[in-house]
Amino acid sequence: MTLMAKAMQECPSSGILWAEAIFMEARPQRKTKCVDALKRCEHDPHVLLAASMLFWSERKISKARSWFHRTVKIDPDIGDAWAYFYKFEQIHGSEEQQQEVFKHCVNAEPHHGEKWATVSKNIENWRLKTGEILPLCAKSLEIPT
Question: Which keywords fit this entry according to its UniProt record (predicted)?
C-alpha cells in the first residue's frame, strides 16, 4: 500500500495505477477509491474497466454491462477489456450478447493489455487470429471478487 501511495504521488493521472489501487483496497473502500479514480482520470480505459469489474463483483449486472460498453468504446485496442467483457457475457449474457461482443472485438483487432499480450504472444498461439485469441484470453481470466 505504501509503495502504491508513493507511485500515485509521482504519477497522479496514471489510469493503470488507479485501476490497480481500486482492487488493492478492502471491499468496503473500493467504491470510494473508484470514485476518486474516476475524478482523476474519467476517460482512462483502465479505470473504466476497473469500474466495470467492480460493478460485476457487486452483482450489478446492467451497470457492469454499460460500463464495459463505455470501456471498449473509449479504447477498442485494449484486449483485456474485450476479454473481460466476453467472459462477463458468457456468464451473465445471452448467446446473442456474447456473439455481439465477439464480433465487435474481431472488428476492433485489439493488441494491448497485460492478459491479452500474455495469451497472444504465447509461442503456441503465434498463428491465431483475434477471434481465436479472445476465448483463450477470457478463459484464463478470473472472475472479480
Answer: Repeat
Confidence of residue 143 (pLDDT cuts 50, 70, 90): very high
Q: Where are the alpha helices (DSSP H) in 41-94?
A: 45-57, 61-74, 79-92
Q: Are 74 and 45 in contact (CB under 8 A)?
A: yes
CA distance 62 to 111: 27
Residue type, 135: P
User: pLDDT-derived band of residue 35, with 50, 70 and 90 as boundaries?
Assistant: very high
Domains of the chain plus CATH, in order, are 14-140 (1.25.40.10)
Structural contact between residues 81 and 51, judged by C-beta atoms closer than 8 angstroms = no
Q: What is the mean pLDDT of residues 129-138?
A: 97
**Mean of the pLDDT values across residues 80-89?**
98
Pick from 93, 99, 92, 97: which is nearest to 134 by CA? 99
List the grid coordinates of 48.
473504466
Q: 65, 61, 13: which is closest to 21 by C-alpha?
A: 13
